[in-house]
Write a structure and sequence with these properties.
Layout: H1 25-39, E1 44-48, H2 55-67, E2 82-89, H3 95-102, H4 111-124, E3 131-138, H5 140-149, H6 152-166, E4 173-179, H7 192-202, E5 206-209, H8 214-223
Parallel strand pairs: 1-4, 1-5, 2-3, 3-4
Length: 224
């Protein structure tokens, strides 16, 4: 029997890959919290978990469950929904430039506003009713590391704009990011004023802990 295990999962590269995923009680609880908060009008989520806890695999299993490729979870966001996914893997670079590239925003004038406009156009193209656009950013911390050292005001303001834009309960645009530590941890070394801005941005996200028990990680490793 083919072994599809890999030590690392890339949510873009491995979109259609048949991989071994065991939905743990922790992962099921995270999905349940996202769905319940979504129904309360919350749209921006920051999943925090240490290295090696399977956050990338979780995002891929989450996507496959929603699309119906594999039913690892039962996420009920809407009845008879139309879904679309925008997926980004973080790198030590500008998140503004990355989004501009993904959404083909070529002009620097009003760049951030144009990006948000293109996101809404992508959402609007799904139809009139029961539509949900998911924006998944894995390794979000790499963008934050870059932001802390390169034009933090501009970079962080875009993150704030993005989260606030997605948090509009009138639209079903869901932002899910993954990091290895809480957002304010990435502000180390910045001025007090900048750190306060970082804390403010953190407040735009629902922070969800994703830490599998050691026993569970050993169990999953033995399965593979």
């Amino acid at each position: 029997m083919a072994n599809n295990f890999t030590t690392s999962v890339n949510i873009i590269r491995d979109t259609d890959r048949d991989f071994n995923y065991i939905p743990t009680p922790n992962a099921k609880q995270v999905v349940s919290q996202i769905v319940n908060d979504f129904k309360k009008g919350i749209r921006s989520f920051n999943v925090v978990g240490t290295y090696g806890t399977g956050k990338s695999s979780f995002l891929l299993a989450f996507e496959q469950s929603i699309k119906g490729t594999k039913r690892y979870f039962e996420p009920n966001f809407a009845s008879n929904p139309k879904y679309d996914f925008v997926k980004i893997v973080g790198s030590y670079a500008s998140i503004v430039e990355q989004f501009a590239d993904v959404f083909e925003v070529l002009t620097n004038k009003n760049q951030q506003e144009n990006i948000l406009s293109e996101i809404f156009n992508r959402y609007h193209s799904l139809g009139k009713e029961n539509k949900v656009l998911f924006i998944l950013i894995d390794e979000f911390g790499k963008f934050l590391e870059y932001a802390s050292k390169h034009n933090p005001e501009k970079e962080l303001y875009f993150v704030q704009q993005l989260a606030e834009f997605c948090n509009n309960p009138k639209h079903n645009i869901v932002l899910i990011t993954t990091v290895h530590q809480s957002l304010e941890s990435y502000a180390y070394g910045l001025s007090k004023t900048q750190q306060q801005e970082w804390t403010k941005v953190k407040g735009r996200f629902r922070e969800i802990t994703f830490n599998e028990p050691v026993e569970q990680l050993l169990f999953l490793a033995n399965l593979n």
